[in-house]
Design brief:
Length: about 300
């Protein structure tokens, strides 16, 4: 497998061991940074961890190796508990024993989201940011209590199979490849009110994007109005990546550190832009997954047999 990265690189956290990729300047476009078996990518603000599914852990910069002893609750298999900094607050962890079998747990700037084995999405967090909850808190289901989102149940294209979160925005994918997004505009608004609200809303992406602004070139797919099926989604602090069933990658949001991987977008875009993968990938390479750090983005790529 091959790992491509773009975006924030102040600590050389995207450098890895690829010759010629060692400077701490931000990356403005997707660049190959690692050739190895890539099973799990964990990007943080100042370091990146990549697991091969066995014993190997690539972590850059190496000064952050000490952080490898800190539990990562992002994709734990038994997350029916919430770590609330017990050492700092001198309190034990908060437990939620009534949650069903949870397969995916995420933290974002104002709360948490969890996905059950049956495709039910639960949210809880800061009551001041109810839009991030995707629901209105009640006396029976306060903001601080994990509560299922009824709006993501019995969807036309099946149950939720993946959730993603970053900053003040959350996203969910259905078994039938539909994308839903909700949240708060936060400090860096990058989604319009018609897309981002306090209730999960379906998002339609076509080859021409979802906006009519002319801040960036539309590319070769200008006349493509076909609705895209989404198989993967990743959310950073203020940007989103999606991967379509036909292997295309679309991005939206802030690009101040190059996290969109689209050099023509100087600061940000409010419409979905297709990444020009032809100028990025090698012969026979296809994208199989997308990952977002706070201000960086990654493509997990496989090389097809020739």
């Amino acid at each position: 497998m091959v790992l491509y990265a773009t975006g924030f690189n102040a600590w050389n956290q995207l450098g890895f061991d690829v010759p010629g990729v060692g400077e701490s300047d931000d990356f403005s476009s997707f660049t190959c940074v690692l050739r190895d078996e890539v099973e799990i990518v964990r990007p943080f603000l100042s370091y990146t961890r990549v697991h091969d599914g066995h014993e190997t852990i690539h972590q850059y910069p190496s000064i952050h190796h000490l952080l490898s002893h800190i539990s990562d609750i992002s994709h734990t298999s038994q997350p029916n508990f919430l770590l609330n900094a017990p050492k700092a607050q001198n309190k034990p962890p908060t437990t939620f024993p009534n949650l069903p079998n949870i397969t995916h747990l995420l933290a974002h700037d104002t709360g948490f989201a969890a996905l059950s084995s049956t495709g039910q999405v639960y949210t809880w967090g800061d009551e001041r940011y109810t839009a991030c909850l995707g629901r209105e808190p009640t006396d029976e289901s306060p903001a601080s209590t994990p509560t299922p989102l009824s709006s993501l149940s019995d969807l036309p294209t099946g149950p939720i199979t993946k959730i993603a979160a970053g900053g003040y925005v959350l996203a969910a994918l259905t078994a039938g490849n539909d994308l839903y997004i909700w949240g708060h505009s936060g400090r860096f608004p990058f989604l319009g009110a018609d897309v981002l609200s306090g209730t999960p809303c379906p998002v339609i992406i076509t080859g021409t994007g979802t906006d009519t602004t002319d801040d960036v070139p539309r590319g070769e797919n200008e006349g493509d109005e076909e609705e895209k099926d989404i198989i993967d989604v990743a959310v950073g602090n203020s940007h989103i990546l999606v991967l379509t069933t036909d292997g295309e990658v679309f991005v939206i949001g802030q690009n101040g550190n190059g996290q969109l991987g689209v050099p023509g977008v100087v600061e940000s875009t409010r419409r979905w832009i297709r990444v020009d993968l032809d100028s990025v990938l090698g012969v026979g390479e296809v994208v199989t997954g997308v990952v977002a750090g706070p201000r960086s983005s990654f493509l997990v790529v496989e090389k097809l047999e020739q």
